[in-house]
Amino acid sequence: MNKSGVVLGLLALVAIAVAVVLFKPAEKKEKVVVADKTKVGFVYVGPVADAGWTYEHDRGRLAVEKQHGNKVETVFVESVSEGPDAERVIAQMAADGADMIFTTSFGYMNPTIKVAKQFPNVKFEHATGYKRADNVATYSSRFYEGRHVLGLIAGKMTKSNTIGYIASFPIPEVVRGINAAYLAAKSVNPEVQFKVIWVSTWFDPGKEADAAKALIDQGADILMQHTDSAAPMKIAEERGIYAFGQASDQAAYGPNAQLTAIIDDWAPYYVRRVDEAMNGSWSSTDTWGGFDTGMVALAPYGKAVPDDVKAMAREAHKAITEGRLHAFTGPVNKQDGSPWLKAGETADDGTLLGMDFYVEGIEGSLP
Amino acid sequence: MDYGLLSSIIHSILVASTPLVFAGLGALIQERAGVLNLGIEGLMIVGALAGFATAVAGSPLLVSIFVAALAGAMLASIFALLVLRLYANPVATGLALTLFGLGLAALAGSQYVGQAAPQVAVWEIPFLSQIPVVGRALFSHDPLVYLSIFTAFVIWWFLTKSRTGLILRAVGENHTSAHALGFSVRGVRFLAIICGGALAGIGGSYLTLVQTPLFVEGMTAGRGWIALALVVFASWRPFRVIAGAYLFGSVSIIQLHGQALGVSIASQWLSMLPYIVTIGALVIIAGRNDLTHKPPGALGSIFRESK
Q1: Which of B8, B78, B216 is facing A12, going by the closest CB pair?
Q2: Contact check, Cβ <8 Å, B260/A214
Q3: pLDDT digits over A98-127, tens only?
Q4: Exposed, middle or buried: residue B152 (CB in 10 Å: 0-12, 13-18, 19+)?
Q5: Fold for domain A144-263+296-353?
Q6: Is B266 in CB contact (< 8 Å) with chain A?
Q7: Which CA distances in Å does B44 have to B69, B138, B252?
Q8: Which of the residues A97, A270, B89, B250 has an alpha carbon 20 to 30 A from that of A1?
Q9: How many Cβ pairs closer than 8 A exist between chain A and B?
């Protein structure tokens, strides 16, 4: 018995070892050392294969390589946890001769500022943060512009007049998305109602799937989400209803269900900033780009979207891109009925960045 | 009350609880043999990937479950080797097993991200499934839900009614005495670890085959740890594991529905509730003196055969 146990255990070990050798890990760092190349580093919070947030950042990195050819060299480190580990990774990257480093998660804010002080000649770019320095720029996307278009489509297409919304945490970014989508849906369908479920996680496919089922059971026929997994899309496909993809095109999970998806497209920004760094015009800036900069894009409309709805969505997309339309245009009241925006007035960025209230008409309260 | 919604809620509760039932029973059988295995989370995710990969390749459900169980058992055998033969510290080894399983599944599973497994057919139990409300809630599920309850029956019967089960419990209570009586402590524990690994693997595969159903790395999201807590909550009894899992599932599903219905209870409280209940159970167990609620006497201790 004991012997057979050992033999089985050893066999399993060997099998695992073989598996590890066969599925060789993707290269964590790519290195080609040529002195006159501009070296650009990327720090990712998740794995490149997450099919969402980090995946899109890595597509931006690949676009930089493609655009600048052999004038640049890129390196990246994936799955870096936010906190002390991040500081070590960023510092190591700078010490290894990176000229420019993109740190692509909110939690890298303080480590980035700290390392930037030690390496004044390295240019840092921090995503979604608010702390800047002479050599630290920040950038983020106006995802709410995408939510506006999603809201229009949802408002037009819902038959039960109930939209299910799976939300992560009540931070301004998420609240803004709910408000933008609701206002847009309401503008084309006064009967529309939003049911919001807060799942208190960015990533738990099981819980996100359960929330999707709960919303569908309570009459939602279109789902929106602000969490990171494709589970809600998959459930929508199974139940034969519609949903919108998050962060990345999720048509693979819902070929019939996906109406469109908000895509974080970092490529235009990365290419431009690397270009500026190379020709010396780079400076510390605070970028909040939307449709106009190409940083927010929409996936192709699904086949379920009728032509007139497509036309309306395209027109809104175009109007926002050209600056003729703002997703938050008055008159809009806050949930408690107090006035927020006067007729024709548009929201200022400061209020949007700190948004901590629902607009009038949304039921329930923020957690 | 809307009865259609009620039956949907109960249906969802059973689905959300099933991975915990399997994984909890897997942890239970090991702990009754005196083995503390903190690697359940790693075993689950490896089973989740193995089952999903098999289903994507076009195999029927039964084969997918079998492969998931096999993968869990294989990984568990490493744990068995390290802990039983090489006397490694079980706590550290279990934690390492979790980390290893998560990493291995992420590495080998990257190509399965974005793929779709065929939908699992529902087994409607004749007549019973026709009963209004209850029929849909309890008797029109996928086969694994029924299997999980059947497994609990089998384990209960094994532990309380069979001679082999008695030996397993003896090994878990006092391995020195069991050894002196001539039982193979390591043999029994090895089999318990293999069975536990297989059950955890099936529990994981339920996530990727039915509940979610897709594969992404890290998707077990802490369910292995909940399963371990459940065993304590259940004071090492199979049916109480089912009760605990359904209680946990109820709280998590009802809070989701409550939010959508506009019930204003802070969802954080409801998210915390299962853990608070577990801690409460621990305190109650610690304060009681009767033997029926005590953990197995030799739980987590290392057995060395005297030469």
Answers
A1: B78
A2: yes
A3: 999 999 988 899 999 999 999 999 999 999
A4: buried
A5: Rossmann fold (3.40.50)
A6: yes
A7: 9, 25, 20
A8: B89
A9: 156
Backbone angles phi, psi at A75, to 5 degrees: -130, 150
- Whether the per-residue pLDDT at A218 is higher than 70: the answer is yes
The structure tokens listed for B248 are 């946990």
Contacts of A246 in chain B (CB under 8 A): none
Is the pLDDT assigned to residue A15 strictly greater than 70?
Answer: no
CA distance B43 to B79: 10
**Average pLDDT of chain B to the nearest whole number:** 89
pTM for the whole structure: 0.84
Q: Which of B262, B15, B271 is nearest to A169 (CA)?
A: B271
User: Which of helix, strand or coil describes residue B203?
Assistant: helix
pLDDT tops 50 at residue B58:
yes
A276-299 in b/e burial notation, b at 16+ Cβ within 10 A?
bbbeeebeeeebebbbebbbbbbb
Interface probe for A, chosen from B9, B81, B193 (most Cβ of A below 10 Å), is: B81
pLDDT mean over B52-59:
93
> Which residues, 6 or more positions from A97, have their beta carbon under 8 angstroms from its beta carbon?
A39
Asked if this assembly's ipTM is beyond 0.90, the reply is no
Q: What average pLDDT score do residues A49-60 get?
A: 84
The domain spans of chain B are: 3-293
* CB proximity under 8 Å: B 66-95 to A: 74-75, 77-78, 80-82, 84-85
Confidence band, pLDDT 50/70/90 cuts, at residue B263: confident
In tens, the pLDDT along B109-143 reads 888 887 878 888 888 888 888 888 888 888 888 99
Domain range annotation of chain A:
38-141, 144-263+296-353
Amino acid making up residue A168: S
Nearest to B108 among A19, A199, A238 (CB): A19
CATH class in words for B3-293: mainly alpha
Q: What is the pLDDT of residue A52?
A: 75
Q: Are strands A72-77 and B123-124 parallel, antiparallel or unpaired?
A: unpaired
**How many C-beta neighbours within 10 Å does residue A137 have?**
22
Q: Does A240 touch chain B (CB under 8 A)?
A: no
DSSP string for residues in B225-280: HHHHHHHHHTTT-HHHHHHHHHHHHHHHHHHHHHHHTT--S-HHHHHHHHHHHHHH
Per CATH, domain A38-141 is 3.40.5.50: no
A200:B84 CB<8 A: no
Q: Which of A4, A6, A79 to mutate to test the interface with B (most CBs of B within 10 A)?
A: A6
Interface check A196 vs B, CB under 8 A: yes
pLDDT at residue B130 in the model: 84
- Is A247 in CB contact (< 8 Å) with chain B? no
